[in-house]
Amino acid sequence: MTTRRWTRIAVATAAILALAGCGSASGADDQELTVFAAASLTDTFTQLAEEFEKEHPGVKVTTSFGGSSDLVAQIEDGAPADVFASADTTNMEKLGDLATDPQDFAANTLEIATPKGNPARISRFADLAEPGTKVVVCAVEVPCGSATAQMEERTGVDIDPVSEEQSVSDVLAKVTSGDADAGLVYVTDVAAAGDSVTGVDFAESDRVVNTYPISTIDGTDEADLAREFIEMVLSETGQKVLTDAGFIRP
């Protein structure tokens, strides 16, 4: 074999090895963390995900928001979640051993949301039971629906809703579209909706408080990264984002 041919082979081999090296380095830097979170956490966790990405170059945080019960069902069916944040402890407990060391990170209370200007003149919780009042609530298996049921029981007010939705965002959609005179969501949802709705506080709201836990999911390939994300949520930075949005500390 000529010296020239050996030189060509050596150069080609070096190029292949260099490309392979570049490919593996890029793969090592690219990580994805998948966070499943209750719909009421949409704004805050979107902000926290962006902050986490800034602090962890090469990491992409993918968020999925929805009713806590729906998210639990997806995780049980094998959805690739690394972190789960629930709007109540009941749905976290449904995961059993799939939830690794849940920690409480926030709490929330209910508030009445009405279309802008409150055309039905809702002023108290009992008004939601008035004949002809179109009220939308969350389904009872969803944390905001469970909280609503508890509130009815503790106040003696029996609401006859025109629909039961699978998340607080669905309730708000019915209210903002004018399909309902009022909806029961969280204080934080009313704040996040801004001028699109009118919020109505009611005296009994502190009788039911939902506690929000967060956990890594057993078997995740990104356990270390998941724990770091949870640490950020529990940190002063994360807690400030949550309290600024109207959440209270657990």
Please give the number of β-strands.
10
Tell me the number of helical segments per DSSP (H or I, 4 or more residues long). 9
Shape: elongated
Low-confidence stretches: 2-28
**The CATH topology of the largest domain is what?**
D-Maltodextrin-Binding Protein, domain 2
Number of domains: 2
Question: Could you spell the SSE succession in H and E letters?
Answer: HEHEHEHEEEHEHEHEEHH
Helix content: 40-55%
Give a description of the structure:
- By secondary structure, this protein is an alpha/beta fold.
- The chain has 2 domains: 28-105 and 213-244, 3-Layer(aba) Sandwich (D-Maltodextrin-Binding Protein, domain 2); 110-207, Periplasmic binding protein-like II (D-Maltodextrin-Binding Protein, domain 2).
- Helices cover 42% and strands 24% of the residues.
- It is built from 9 helices and 10 strands.
- The protein has a 5-stranded mixed β-sheet. Strands 7-6-8-5-9 form a 5-stranded mixed β-sheet.
- Strand 6 (135-138), helix 5 and strand 7 form a beta-alpha-beta unit.
- The longest helix is centred in the N-terminal third of the chain and has 27 residues, at 3-29.
- It is elongated and about 55 Å long.
- The termini are far apart.
- Mean pLDDT is 90; it is low at 2-28.
- This is Molybdate-binding protein.
- Belongs to the bacterial solute-binding protein ModA family.
